[in-house]
Specification:
extended, 2 strands, 5% strand, two-stranded antiparallel ribbon, 75% helix
C-alpha cells in the first residue's frame, strides 16, 4: 500500500498539478493587487466613481445590487485580460520557440503515389 501511494505521488501529473496550484495561488495575490491597487483607481478616475457597489435599483421594495455584479464583472475582465497578456501569450511564444514550427506529417509511399495520381488527373 505504501509503494502504491508513493508511485501515485511521484507521478508527474500529480507533482505538476501541485506546483500549478501553488503558483496559481501566489499569482492570485499579484493579480488581485493589480486590479485593486492599479486598475480600479484608473477606472475610477475615468468614470469618477471609485466603487460601484452602492449602485442599486428597487422594485416593489426589493433592492437589486447591480453595482456589486458590475464590480465583480470588471474585476473578472481585468484578471482575464491580465492573465492572457502576461501569462498565456508569453508561454505560447516560448513554447513555439522551443518546439519550433510543426513538421508536416510524413507521407507513406502509397500516399505520395495517390497524390501524384490526383495531380495528374487534375491536369
Amino acid at each position: 500500500m505504501g509503494k502504491g501511494f508513493r508511485d501515485f505521488i511521484l507521478r508527474g501529473n500529480v507533482v505538476d498539478l501541485a506546483v500549478g496550484v501553488m503558483v496559481g495561488a501566489a499569482f492570485t495575490a499579484v493579480v488581485t493587487s493589480l486590479v485593486k491597487d492599479l486598475m480600479t483607481p484608473f477606472i475610477a478616475a475615468i468614470v469618477k466613481q471609485p466603487d460601484f457597489s452602492k449602485l442599486v435599483f428597487t422594485i416593489n421594495g426589493s433592492q437589486f445590487l447591480y453595482g456589486d455584479f458590475f464590480n465583480a464583472f470588471v474585476s473578472f475582465i481585468i484578471v482575464a485580460v491580465t492573465i492572457y497578456f502576461f501569462v498565456v501569450v508569453p508561454v505560447n511564444k516560448l513554447t513555439t520557440r522551443f518546439k519550433g514550427s510543426p513538421e508536416a506529417p510524413k507521407q507513406s509511399p502509397e500516399e505520395k503515389l495517390l497524390i501524384e495520381i490526383r495531380d495528374l488527373l487534375k491536369k
